[in-house]
User: Fold this.
Amino acid sequence: MFLFSALYSFFSRLFFSKTAEITIVGLQASGKTSFVNVIGSGQWSEDVVPTVAFNLRRVRQGNVTLKVWDVAGQPKFRNMWDRYCRGVDAIVFVVDSHDKDTLPIAKFELHSLLDCAPLNGVPLLVLGNKNDLPGHASIGELIHALDLDKIHNRPVSCYSCSMKSQHNLDIVMKWLSSRAS
Ligand SMILES: Nc1nc2c(ncn2[C@@H]2O[C@H](COP(=O)(O)OP(=O)(O)OP(=O)(O)O)[C@@H](O)[C@H]2O)c(=O)[nH]1
Ligand SMILES: [Mg+2]
Assistant:
């Protein structure tokens, strides 16, 4: 019986596994690396080293493997974002919904990225992170502040979440897994 179930799981992984390639961008300290740490190993930390250039991680979720590009958000790295977004199954744009002063810069950087013609049609998921902190922007405020209703050349979704409390990460993972083929 054990042998049968081991063989079954081996072959189902071999024949029914799906993959999705995802790129995560957003301003520095919005929580991109925290996101990858939490979905990759369940590890939350207050002390995360700012990313230099990018990290590549593979995350397994059921029969789906996500190949995740975690790209640095400091200004000097932002001109690399479009290169990492080409040909992927989804772009995840993370914002710090608690730091409302940064939303205008986030809007500018998001729209500059999406204006890049080769990225037309690539689905976009916007995460309003840090919703564990009081006074964070709601979904409605994020849609307005980031002009998400003016994006017409791709499917767009927006969730409010927290890497710290893991609020809504289940629906985020469902969304990402549904991009796999
Ligand atoms: N309260 C709270 N803090 C968070 C949350 N997510 C991330 N942080 C904190 O925000 C800080 C920055 O997180 P990072 O994951 O390094 O941010 P990043 O977007 O990868 O930053 P760069 O690599 O510089 O682009 C860290 O101190 C995290 O602990 C969250 O959901 N809630
Ligand atoms: Mg990082």
